[in-house]
UniProtKB/TrEMBL annotation:
Gene3D superfamilies: FAS1 domain. PANTHER family: FASCICLIN-LIKE ARABINOGALACTAN PROTEIN (PTHR32382), FASCICLIN-LIKE ARABINOGALACTAN PROTEIN 8 (PTHR32382:SF5). Residues 358-368 have a biased composition (Low complexity). The chain crosses the membrane at residues 405-425. This is Fasciclin-like arabinogalactan protein 8.
Length: 426
């Protein structure tokens, strides 16, 4: 038994790698069926495709272009996203399993339920095997009719993904009629204040960055808002020392153009540009994930994605636990503020070479560099063992990309070593 535990750790380690490689691609899969092109198009627009691709053991209930057009109607994307997420069942159903439902009826969880916005059991679908081989679907909300029925099987990759056609959309009560906030009506600072991000809200107001956010929100915008504790955390540089332009860059660094919900962040493998990006590789962020947890890395520090404040396609706001410190502003000296002085070099000492920026990448060791990164940081605690893989180049973002791989390798090696030693010990 004892020897099994490390084995599971190895599996977890391998999963972390595998998670980067999608097992399926719903967009590609549906592309072979022009009758679902509208449905496919909306999956992409709402980024539900990324969410579907990042999951295993999933069933997508599709309907044809006519049904999709009438569902979409004049509804905003945020409503269409909710409606479609009720058609992504977090279980694997093929034709055979539909006809073998125990007691002939079941409630199955959908992606809508995982958003936390579904009241009661509105995030579940009722699947009922009626007499005569007919299988019907409906909302699990009390009093709902089973008005949609299974028409045919479209595609199966057992037991990863199944696509089934149904006759018409499944609608949860009130889902289409609920008022959908339009980006232009949203009170961004009000939302931020309610979410515990008063400092950030005040900064975007006083700097004028709010105007940039407001105009971007309608086209697509994602904001990562540090909560108030993040600004008070030990090691956060004195932001009042920044020039106005630097403050604006810092704030814009906390946002990306385009709708980037959590599922999309989870499937991100290359550095992402922020609104502060002003040249290739400048002011960008790298993203890692471990299971459902997403971590943003700046090269100086990192922060876990905490809560979803707003997910209203094409605009999303998340809270984060730490202020994101771009290497472009904070890479030269771990702590420009008079904060706790690291033993080595408390003063900005860029005298030696233009290389100090990458030196702090993934190395949480200097005391002042950042608040101790949340435990969900790099999987395992390997980073401090992954030293000077940098200093070759002054392009911090390149380093960020390159340093992470050794850290993961070291994790794996460590894990494998643990297993070997445990086998010998037992
Ligand atoms: C199902 O997903 C797993 C994990 O990603 C993958 O290894 C496997 O090849 C997939 N199965 C098929 C039939 O594609
Ligand atoms: C899925 O397939 C589409 C169409 O072939 C492609 O544009 C997209 O990049 C693919 N997505 C992933 C995550 O590979
Ligand atoms: C599904 O809906 C039918 C019809 O309303 C109902 O009789 C059945 O109990 C429901 N199934 C479950 C598991 O709630
Ligand atoms: C936004 O919300 C804040 C806090 O709730 C409020 O003080 C402010 O007046 C609101 N702004 C607008 C334009 O409604
Ligand atoms: C460093 O970056 C420069 C320009 O970006 C590139 O030409 C050079 O090959 C890089 N050096 C190393 C060691 O990666």
């Amino acid at each position: 038994m004892g020897a099994l535990q490390p084995f599971f750790v190895v599996c977890l380690g391998l999963l972390a790698f595998n998670a980067l490689v999608s097992a399926h691609n719903i967009t590609e899969l549906l592309a072979a069926f022009p009758e679902y092109s509208e449905y496919n198009n909306y999956l992409s627009q709402t980024k539900l495709d990324d969410e579907i691709n990042s999951r295993q053991t999933i069933t997508v209930l599709v309907f044809n272009n006519g049904a999709m057009s009438s569902l979409a109607g004049k509804h905003p994307l945020s409503v269409i996203k909710k409606a479609l997420s009720l058609h992504v069942v977090l279980d694997y159903y093929d034709a055979q399993k539909l006809h073998q439902i125990s007691k002939g009826t079941t409630l199955s969880t959908t992606l809508y339920q995982t958003t936390g916005n579904a009241p009661g059991n509105y995030g579940f679908v009722n699947i009922t095997d009626l007499q005569g081989g007919k299988v019907s679907f409906g909302s699990a909300a009390p009093g709902s009719k089973l008005s949609s029925s299974y028409t045919k099987s479209v595609k199966q990759i057992p037991y990863n993904i199944s696509v089934l056609e149904i006759s018409e959309p499944i609608i949860a009560p009130g889902l289409l009629t609920a008022p959908a906030p339009s980006a232009s009506d949203l009170n961004i600072t009000g939302l931020l204040e309610k979410a515990g991000c008063k400092t950030f809200a005040a900064l975007i107001l006083s700097s004028g960055v709010i105007k940039t956010y407001q105009s971007a929100a309608e086209k697509g915008l994602t904001i990562f808002a540090p909560n108030d504790e993040a600004f008070k955390a030990k090691g956060v540089p004195d932001l009042t020392k920044l020039t106005n332009a630097e403050t604006v860059s810092l704030l814009l660094y906390h946002s990306v153009a385009g709708y980037t919900p959590k599922g999309t962040l989870k499937s991100t493998t290359t550095p992402i540009s922020t609104l502060a990006t002003n040249g290739a590789g400048k002011y960008d962020l790298t993203v890692t994930h471990d299971g459902d947890s997403v971590v943003l890395h700046t090269g100086v520090d990192s922060s876990r994605l905490a809560d979803t404040v707003l997910d209203a396609t094409p605009f999303a706001i998340f809270t984060i636990d730490s202020v994101l410190l771009p290497t472009e502003l904070f890479g030269k000296s771990p702590s420009p503020a008079p904060g706790p002085a690291p033993e080595s070099s408390p003063s900005p000492a860029p005298v030696l070479a233009p290389s100090p920026a990458p030196a702090s990448v993934e190395a949480p060791s200097p005391l002042g560099a950042s608040p101790p990164a949340p435990p969900s940081d790099t999987p395992g605690g390997a980073p401090s063992d992954a030293p000077s893989a940098e200093s070759e180049n002054s392009t911090s973002t390149d380093a960020a990309g390159h340093v992470r791989a050794p850290a993961l390798l070291i994790l794996l090696v460590t894990v494998v070593a643990t297993v070997i030693s445990s086998i010998f010990l037992s």
